[in-house]
Structure formats: C-alpha cells, structure tokens
C-alpha cells in the first residue's frame, strides 16, 4: 500500500488543511486530520487489576466514512480531556501513526492515531468539513 503525507485541502474551507485517513503515514509527523470525534472512553487493563491505561477515541473520516482508532496515554489524558467533546468536528495536529497491533481491534482501519506530547486537538467551529456523524 502506498501512502502519501501530503495534506488534502478542504475545498471551499480556507485555512483547514488536513489529511484523509487513507493518506496517513506511519511514524511521528506534522500531518493533521479533520474528523468527527464520535466517542471516547477510559481504557482499563483488566489483566492488571483494572489499571487505567488512557483514553480510547473513535474518529470518523469525512471522505469515505471510515473510522480510525485513537489513543491518549494515561500520563497525557488530563491534559486533553477538556478538549474532548463527543459528536464534534475536531482538528488533530502532530500525532504519531502506528500499526494497530491489539487483538481487541475496534475498527477496520490498520492504523492507530497515538497522541504524543506535541499533539493538539481543537474543535472546529468555523469552516468545518462536512462529516455525517450519524453514518
């Protein structure tokens, strides 16, 4: 599979540049996504006495209505929680893209968006891409 890191400009939306999920590249980068934040929840490791692992997120892509898994590690969760709002359109910048390796896969997408210390997530109020959050 060939992947491109070049951002896809949202037509008619000045200032919002982002990649669609299919163009994400593995590794840490300066790529961005604009997507629907469908849901998020605390992740616990039940094999380790319900140890808090972080926050799991589900993002919805605008182009092909695909869903990708996101994860915020426990040490960074408090920083990002005030910025998370289910059923909102968000822009996420500067994250790591990894192969999804868990046997408990919750989406069909092969990749995972992993929040790292420089990651920024903001709700897009003006100029948001059209994303059907009900699909």
From TrEMBL:
UniProt cross-references to SUPFAM superfamilies, sorted A to Z: Nucleic acid-binding proteins (SSF50249)
Pfam families: DUF223 (PF02721)
Domain Replication protein A 70 kDa DNA-binding subunit B/D first OB fold residues, every copy: 32-122
InterPro entries the record matches: NA-bd_OB-fold, RFA1B/D_OB_1st
Protein's UniProt name: Replication protein A 70 kDa DNA-binding subunit B/D first OB fold domain-containing protein
Organism: Brassica cretica
């Amino acid at each position: 599979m060939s992947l491109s890191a070049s951002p896809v400009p949202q037509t008619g939306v000045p200032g919002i540049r982002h990649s669609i999920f299919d163009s994400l590249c593995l590794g840490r980068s300066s790529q961005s996504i604009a997507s629907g934040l469908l849901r998020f929840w605390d992740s616990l490791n039940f094999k380790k006495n319900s140890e808090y692992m972080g926050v799991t997120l589900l993002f919805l892509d605008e182009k092909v209505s695909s869903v990708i898994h996101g994860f915020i590690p426990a040490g960074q969760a408090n920083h990002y929680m005030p910025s998370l709002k289910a059923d909102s359109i968000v822009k996420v910048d500067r994250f790591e893209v990894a192969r999804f390796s868990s046997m408990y896969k919750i989406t069909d997408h092969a990749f995972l968006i992993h929040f790292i210390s420089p990651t920024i997530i903001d709700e897009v109020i003006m100029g948001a891409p059209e994303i059907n959050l009900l699909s």
